[in-house]
Design a protein that fits this description.
With 171 residues, the protein is α+β, with helices and mostly antiparallel strands. It is built from 4 helices and 6 strands; from the N terminus they run αβαββββααβ. It has one domain. Strands 1, 2, 3, 4, 5 and 6 form a 6-stranded antiparallel beta sheet that branches.
């Protein structure tokens, strides 16, 4: 006879581990955003969200993907001044068990098997010039929308909207 009781206990233990892993990932993003908030006068945050999937090989397939409203998980820079405004910085994939997580920036795929790996790869992501440009554009946008947030960073730009080059804006 099958040992269903043992299988049930294994499933419950796995569910508890998964819950702890997901909470750990959330804690890493919370710490990330506390530090980013301190460094940007609370102008931006990095959030896990989704964007329309427009990565296809052909124009027709791209139009079909956009029309289907297929969304894919992504990491976004979000304006804290106008939270409906965000810019994609990378693709994001998280296992239902919490780990592994995958961050994709262009052709660079970063695998995170645990907290230390996630912290390392998020730091690497933030250090990249592409992400730096997007963050700067988001901060410029936040400053233009709310000049009273200049603080110690000063005015970063005078445009009303962040440049679209190098970023995928969502409204």
């Amino acid at each position: 006879m099958a040992d269903f009781s043992s299988s049930l206990q294994k499933g419950i233990a796995a569910a508890k581990r998964a819950e702890l892993n997901r909470a750990e990932v959330a804690a890493v993003f919370k710490e990330l955003n506390e530090q980013i908030g301190d460094s940007t006068d609370q102008k931006i945050a990095i959030v896990r969200g989704s964007v329309l999937d427009a990565t296809t090989d052909t124009l027709g397939a791209g139009i079909a993907a956009l029309m289907s409203n297929k969304r894919v998980p992504a990491l976004l820079v979000q304006s804290k001044i106008e939270p409906t405004r965000s810019w994609q910085i990378a693709r994001w994939k998280q296992d239902p068990y919490g780990y592994p997580c995958t961050i994709t920036l262009g052709g660079d795929v970063m695998h995170c098997e645990n907290r230390a790996g996630l912290e390392r790869e998020l730091s690497r992501l933030l250090s990249s010039p592409e992400v730096g440009e997007t963050i700067l554009a988001a901060m410029n946008y936040a400053t233009a929308k709310n000049p009273t947030t200049e603080g110690r960073l000063g005015v970063l730009g005078s445009s009303d909207q962040a440049p679209e080059a190098g970023s995928t804006g969502t409204s």
